[in-house]
Design goal:
The structure holds 2 protein chains of 2 kinds. Chain A is mainly alpha-helical. Helices cover about 85% and strands about 0% of the residues of chain A. Chain A is built from 10 helices and no strands. Chain A is globular and about 60 Å long. Chain B is mainly alpha-helical. Chain B has one domain. The longest helix of chain B has about 35 residues. The chains are: A mainly alpha, B mainly alpha. Chains A and B meet through helix 6, helix 7 and helix 10 of A and helix 3 and helix 6 of B.
Amino acid sequence: MTGLVYKEWKQNRWFILSMILCGSAPLIVLLIMHDEIKDIGDTPIRIGGLIAGFLAAGALQMLVLRGDDRKLWGYWITATPDGYKGFLRVKYEMIFGMIVLLMFSVQFVDMGYCAVAADMGKADAVQISGIALPLCFVQILLRAIDIPFVYRFGSKKGSFIKMICLVTVAIILLAFLILNAERFDMIIESCKKVINVQNSSLLLSVGLAVCLALYYLSYRITCKLYLKGVEQYDH
Amino acid sequence: MTTKKENAKRLGIYLLTVFAFMLIFVLCIKPMNASNTVFYIIYMIFSFSPAITSLITRAVTKEGFRDMKLHLRLSGNFKWYLLAFGLPLICFSAKFLLPVIISGHADWLGAFTAQNVLTSVFTLAAMSAVMSIGLIGEELGWRGYMNQKMEPLLGTVGTCIVGGIVWGLWHLPMDIAGCGGAMSDVFAMCGGRKIQLTLFGVFLMWLTKKTDSVFPAVIGHYMFNESQGALANLLYQGSIPENADLGVIADVFEYLPMILLAAVFMIMLFHDNSRTPKTA
């Protein structure tokens, strides 16, 4: 297992370390746009930077999957003592670690900024890492969806098929809403009944835990699909 | 094979360096109080000082960076991760809730509805997975290095006691900075926490040895910090009278769950040690 961790580190260390930079995005954007602070205020700029940082981090997390969709590598790793399951486990752990590192650096930079701002007499500087937490779980969920597609169909074809699947789901949802247009108010009402002020925090916390469970489920699904995927890789 | 002398040297360097960080923290309290930025920088460096020190010691003694227990080792150990999550929560629930229930004031626990409790548990579960990583700054040093060096020298009980005391004492500057008062006030306010840390260290030591990874200890440590806050938050939402005093029973339950936890895991450490084949 140490060998696989070493391989991932040697191959992807810059992508892993770039999470620190993505976590610093709110500060970087603030420094770039410091002339706009008076007009917009620093919090909206930092939130913009935070979202940009998360989007960049998401793209970088997908880049660590590049190069693994090769037949020879797939057969070779399957024949090692750790097997393809060990390889996939390290990949999943690494991507989860990247998300955790991103979250940690967001918090680190955010708290640092608030400390500096307090010394500069900016009483209105508020922490934005509270927004980062749900974004972090959204990222876990997105990676849980992305990774099985990449290993089943290869990175290029996988992204394309994932897009088709998502568009299909969106069309089905849209068709469902259009077909039930007359009962739209009723659907909204029943949604409001399920999600209300009393149980919104419970649903949110369950949602966060479900994201983690889905990430694990995604690993199990990828393990099931990996060998089928290897058979279909182009080279 | 590492000799006892080498171990003692490494441990000595580690402890001296970590206490040097403590000294720096104490000496910087004045500028820290004057500036939020200085406070933040020094506090962060200090929080990571056990891990930084373990790396420094490994480099200085040319020991190398093997056996840092940085593998997750999830397979086969997931149950211990769950234990790391659940046991602090159970212990602190016993500490906070049992005195209230036994003394016949269960009506104070109005906020402990199934919905609120589930919300707290799921939130803690999710947060412990993504927010606990900062505590590696401590665990990499205490459980990942100090205990390993201390156990051959002082034995399991000695490591639990001395290691726990060192760990508790290391928190002292943070408490001084937090309380902002005299040393006697700090001990009066945080003395109980130090005892609890010492006791809880036994569980964390057992977890690290059982899983050969510091990550379960990181989760356990996070839960030690956060579950108290979550439970206190629910307690304050209830209808507790302002002058509420549960007397001796609250004092007993302040320490009883942690004492039991420490005793159970000390026995388990002995049990595991007796099953480990001795090498010459």
